Amino acid sequence: MKDDVLILVGGEGGEGVISASEILVKAAARAGYEVYTFRTFPAEIRGGHAQMQIRVSPKEILSLGDRFDVVIAMNDEAVQLHLHEIKAGGILIYDKSEYDKASVADLKTLDPNGYIQKNNITVVMVPMTDTAGRDLKTPKSKNMVATGAICAALPCFRIDIIKEMIKQQFIKKGDLVVQTNWQALDAGVKYIQPNLKLFDSLQIGEPKSKKSKRMVTTGNIAFSLGSILAGCKYFAGYPITPASDVLEYLSVHLPKFGGNVIQTEDEISALASVLGASYAGLRAYTATSGPGFSLMQELLGFAHIAELPCVVLDVQRGGPSTGLPTKAEQSDLNIAVFGAHGDAPRIVLAPLDVPDCLQVAIKSFNLADKYQTPVIVLSEQSLAHRFEPIEWIDPSTVAIDRGKIVEEVQLNGKPRYARYDLTEDHISPRVLPGTKNYYYIMGGLEHNIYGKPGYTPEIHKTMTEKRMKKLELAREEIEKDKYYFEEFGDTNASIGIMGWGATIGSTKEAILLLKKEGISVKTLYTKVLSPLPVETIGKWLKSLDMVVVIEMNALGQFTRVLEAAFKRDFVSLTKCDGVPIKPEEIVGKVKSALALERRLV
Ligand code: COA
Fold it and tell me: Is the pTM of the predicted complex or chain greater than 0.90?
């Protein structure tokens, strides 16, 4: 039995690649397996290449993996793109009606009636288009013929659960749609029967332990759930891929928890209205992606000087400009950390996986309230759209810290309420509108402790320092909280890997692969990119001879931050092709850096 199986479903956008994959993923998770996915599709609504990778295992899954065990190709393009990514011994399930169009020379020599083994890959034909279109008269159900074939071949996808999932997915389109999809599924099962033996070497074991209460969801939905658990009562946003599903999800669910959602005319208004809600005392946030995040910069400066808590979720995609709307990249670190005009340091967090998106959401609201400042959360497309199981959380266990909101103000000898009072911890007590006897005026101009505009050197210096020192206090809190750091690997290793965000899975898997080759490596991921936890990272770096920093951007943005902070050299592994970093790529970089170092010594 294998530890895991890695499947790719590929076809044309509009053909139902994503629906079929979601059904498979949810069914495997419901049967108790661990799942891990990556989906990517073109920016167009119809056409172009859509694909979803699904890794299933009875054990913990760290990353997306490398090469595929099975590719389900719903069209010829999927064959062209992915044939070379199939492992030796792997299988291509290919739509028979697409076969005639095959442009891959090797495949032209195959017998379309059966299966062929060539170059250590087996090609199995399944008549997806013909069955759905000609036999069942429902061309849309082509993806379910493919689904039936893979379910019969790999029993980790249980047919009974798949049928239930099909019902859940398509019931809104009517009973008939569900029925025909079940028929298509059965047809797929039938077509693969003669070739089942071919899949013997790809079988995985059954999950051992019974799973606790959990749900399978994506990074975006996990963040949305986290925000509801954190007591968020207001969301404003403008649709933008890959962040739109946060707006869609919250518009349905936030009102059930007493909250409100508004779709604004653009991203500037979205953040402006979030800041209004925050002033009124609500926990509020917006979600966007690169182009929208750029538009929000001025208002983030405003939130900083006005000391208004708010959370901005930036689901990064390939940039700059409209760039690659549906592809993965981690290239907004610079704008998130340094994008402000004026001296306006921010808190910037980066979740590591889907369950962590939920936790980071809760943390981000607490930090924003406690330090009365904007908190930016950097997610990215692959994490935002990836399915993973998350454990059920008891809402009563969620710690909520609203910071210094007071109903009674201590005047401390002052004639009236000083909204920006200078305190020992640099955080001034906040009153909410409606608090008896107290009000304050808030604006974007520099101000004195009462909020009155003031431009003297003394005022600007004092207030700038006040705002910056709050962030220093936040750093001290963060350094003490183990939640913000994830370590993995051999603690005695002299080679380290650093990174941020969702690349952690590939890093962990690379460390395990390197260990098998006798190379000892460890990693540290910080979930806080600003203020940089210099003490924790500095201590960790001390024992290391070589540190590889991996990230999905071309400039090596995090590497530059680390170089500036620690004045030492780092080996930079950057990637900006829209696809997440794979364990093999990290292994290759560590080995080549090691070889180079040895040559130099
Ligand atoms: N029976 C009936 N209906 C089916 C079906 C079946 N067996 N399989 C799929 N469908 C339906 C789906 O329900 C969906 O219907 P909907 O449009 O009413 O929701 C539709 O067919 C598309 O299928 P789906 O599986 O969701 O997607 P896909 O794999 O075909 O890919 C996308 C389509 C996702 C690529 C495309 O629609 C899209 O959204 N592109 C991205 C656009 C974008 O974000 N651009 C960026 C702008 S800046």
Answer: yes
